[in-house]
Amino acid sequence: MRALILAKRLPAPDAVRSDGVEFVRNDYFLLVDAAGSIENLETYFREVYAPAAQTAQTQPWRSIDEGWEMFIAGGLDPKIDHFAGPETEAGEGSWTWHLRRELRRFLDGARRLAGADGPEAARRRDQQLMRIGSAAWGAGLSLLMLERHGEAASWLERSALCYRRSLADAEPGSWGRSIGPLKARLIAGDLVGARREAMWTLDLGADTQSASPTAHYAACLSYLTLGDDAAAGRLATILTKVAAFPEATAEACKAMAAREASSYGPAIRAVLRTFEERPRYLEDIPVADTVLALQALAGLHHISVPLVSPTLPATPNGRHS
Q: Which of 46, 206, 255, 273 would be 263's cystine partner, CB 3.0–4.6 Å?
């Protein structure tokens, strides 16, 4: 870290004590996280953060070069509203508006999480991890709809980490917290991470220690990710007979396990229709996230079904849907 600061790739400390101890803010890496990596930090600052600050006329600098130097010198307190970039769409409900809302929620939750250590803080830690995980999820989907794929992948990865960490304090049987990170990594195009999530989910006993439909779904997605189509097909068949489980989703999983493109097409289109017709969405983000995850799995099974919808990005992960 010291070498990166000296190379002016990370900001200098905010303060230095008389004995030489250096201090940074607890959100020191937030702009790095938004950029996706240290390598992308300067480009992100110049192309996303600084233009947004200039549009809002809140920047304390005269040029972007001066702003970058101020940031690297540790003299700039980044504003979360500018992480979304300049407003390119009008008003409430735009994807930039959704992104700003989720970023504010994430930062607020991260601040509340700070200091939530020890067993006595388990409930607060669990609540805030879920909150910031959901906010990161919403930010990632919003960025995907804005076709900012690198940033989207970074926020979806952060969502997966928060959901997975929250399992430590969760009630037994919280299988949704295994489904969330797996879907996030699939949508982000992180196959290595998705396979890791799938193995962890199965190690937790999704297929062997619970008969709940949510556990079966978590295990089915995990097997599809790992390429165990026989096990995935077995669970998908069970899910098709569960009245409370979405039939089209179960049929799509079953078709993938059988590698039947002719059956997968109608099933995934039916899943998409349920998203297009629903009045409310997770995190109030109108994106067909289940469709995105299933389409990623379909690609692993060499099945391609082009889909176009207002609830889908034009080019998921840089590829035409």
A: 255
